[in-house]
């Protein structure tokens, strides 16, 4: 195993939920796999007054919780040697002196500042780093979502961060792109010839992208009520998945070749404005129901949610892409909280045969379908028609499955593990470029505005269902159904 070049990873928000649940366990795994060189450091940063030992105790507890059976005392002791803590209040410029002291004399190390904090701290942190000469030319900065709440605020953050770090130093994370199955989707599309001739209008009937959560708003109600599902999920994760499905083959594996192609998709999205928004989008809000077999409260009864909130916890949209490849092929996107199960999948449904000479079921299940599942399991499944055994030529759908955990016994990287490695290697392929982000907001903003101007409240749905009936009608009108309704 070749370790990564020596680095200092400065984790702003080092005591927060994301750091404890995802980032630090991912770094522990990197250490366990031999990727952390002896002198590499992980510096947790937050406002809390904590000694190194107190911080290590918190990190250890979360590694034990979130790594489960992968946690090992000996490995923990090895990882702990890399971890340290610095108290910095990001809004107090003088506090950066403590961080400067920790980083002193290590300018030759690769340096990455991971900003796992609220986005209004992104610019002050970058400015604090610049004032104390910590943003060296070989530094990188990693920005977590949400990057603003609309195009204007996102542009403002990008502008201020861009004065300190060049675009090549800025890593905007969308952790969906770090998932193994998304990489496999790229392999399937651009490492094989099989699908390319079929990957277009005339061959593809429609595409569905679902990111369903069983959880409600949990501890993030305050943040969520300001944000809603459109900004929290569609603007980033769902549009990024759509880009991966819809983009043209990049000419090379160069990061910008891929990002150029994704940008073209975002710019080809047919704008949704005014009445179109009401016709082609559905927003919902969950009411009391059940999750995991237990009763749960509705969104308006969640702690920290105002009881007249109109924030959407569910969105479904019909999206059209005005390009030669895709015009006329509807893409349906759907995401929500408190849905029936945790499920992220992309479903590409192909056109039917022009003439059927065999007896076959006359149902949508009989169409060729490619299902790319990202959660809970990562798999790719292709539905084809095959002959049912017996004398008569009767066709029935069967699935050709590629279950990655069955097929490849090699350990798989968690999304944050991969993305952190890419940051430390300087590979920008799976990170959003500024123009991509702004094009996504440009498409999203008019939808939000049309909703805000409408008197219509979000449609309610029972927690534990698949969302409002209107979401089924959105596809039903076009003669289709969500895969779970087939
Ligand atoms: P969190 O649990 O509220 O943690 C926030 C962290 O920021 C804490 O470590 C906090 O520590 C620190 N902090 C707050 N104000 C600070 C300041 N002025 N100076 C220095 N540190 C400060 O939030 P989170 O859930 O980890 O999320 C962090 C960011 O990632 C948010 O923007 C969130 O939207 C985004 N995100 C989170 C998730 C997730 O699953 N949690 C997923 C995707 C994106 P102190 O209070 O000690 O300062």
Q: Which key features would you list for this structure?
A:
486 residues; alpha/beta; Rossmann fold; Dihydrodipicolinate Reductase, domain 2; nine-stranded mixed sheet; six-stranded parallel sheet; 14 helices; globular; binds NADP nicotinamide-adenine-dinucleotide phosphate; carbohydrate metabolism
Question: How would you portray this structure in words?
Answer:
The structure is a single chain. By secondary structure, the chain is α/β, with parallel strands linked by helices. It has two domains: 7-172, 3-Layer(aba) Sandwich (Rossmann fold); 177-414 and 433-485, Dihydrodipicolinate Reductase, domain 2. It is 36% helix and 21% strand. The protein has 14 helices and 17 strands. A nine-stranded mixed beta sheet has the order 16-15-14-13-7-12-11-8-17, sandwiched between helices. A six-stranded parallel beta sheet has the order 3-2-1-4-5-6. A hairpin with a 3-residue loop joins strand 14 and strand 15 (379-387). The longest helix is centred in the middle third of the chain and has 26 residues, at 221-246. The radius of gyration is 24 Å and the shape is globular. The model has no long low-confidence stretch (mean pLDDT 94). Residues 12-19, 46-48, 88-91, 116-119, 121, 144-146 line the site of NADP nicotinamide-adenine-dinucleotide phosphate. Pathway: Carbohydrate degradation; pentose phosphate pathway; D-ribulose 5-phosphate from D-glucose 6-phosphate (oxidative stage): step 1/3. This is Glucose-6-phosphate 1-dehydrogenase. Substrate binds at residues 175, 179, 213, 232, 337, 342. One of its GO terms (cellular component) is cytosol.
